[in-house]
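Subject: for your reference before the review

Hello V.,

The reviewers asked for a structural picture of the protein, and I figured it would be easier to keep everything in one thread rather than splitting it across files. Below is the amino acid sequence we used in the manuscript, unchanged from the supplementary table.
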Amino acid sequence: MKKNHPIHSRLAALAFAAAMSLMLASCGSSDSSSKGGTVSLQETSAAEAVSSSSEASDVSEPAAESTPGADDQSTASEGSAPAVPATASFAEKTKYIYNGATFEIGSKFADVKDKLGDQAKPSATSTPCVPGAHDVEYFYYAGLIIQVNFEGTIMDIQLNEEMAPGRDGTISVGLKLGDTREKAKELLGEPASEDEYSITYKDPDSKKTLSIYDRENEGIYIIGLTDSEIPF
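And here is what came back from the structure prediction:
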């Protein structure tokens, strides 16, 4: 049985922030209105993650609203059949659905930006410490963080309340924040790896990785997808 020690939860949040940002280790970062800062965005995000994770209260899942012209896939409600079958590909299972918009790793951010609604906080940029790397832009919505590369391609997506509370998003199998690890396994199958704090799925046909973090008394609090093949 998992133990919900506060220090372990905080370390898990920090570990996730470090893991998701490993390929994007920042030399410096800035917000949307001021460039040239020297504070690492990843370090700031991890610190805020620990603070807001310990203070955030439970947020109820609102009923999903349909959007004209949106993808036919819909959020699966509690107890209903998943939006895609268990036999679907990794890519089909891990599309994100937010505010009626369906998108995935590799989508062009411009195609979905107007459908996502208002940002919860200003976007920010971060320059990876890799020779020749371009700025990566971060967009923050309630319960959602999207990383976009220099080509406007989505390269990392997180359902994550650590920057702004919100549980409106799901992935296309119907998994959402607050669900249990057991439900994740029912919808996605056995993970590639598992420990006390997380389970991880890997796409056998690409470099996509889905990382799911949970706490015993709170359920899943991060559902993150990244693709290391997308250039930055």
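For the response letter, the relevant points are probably these. Helices lie at 6-20, 41-55, 90-93, 109-112, 181-188. The first helix runs from residue 6 to 20.

Happy to draft the paragraph if you're swamped.

O.
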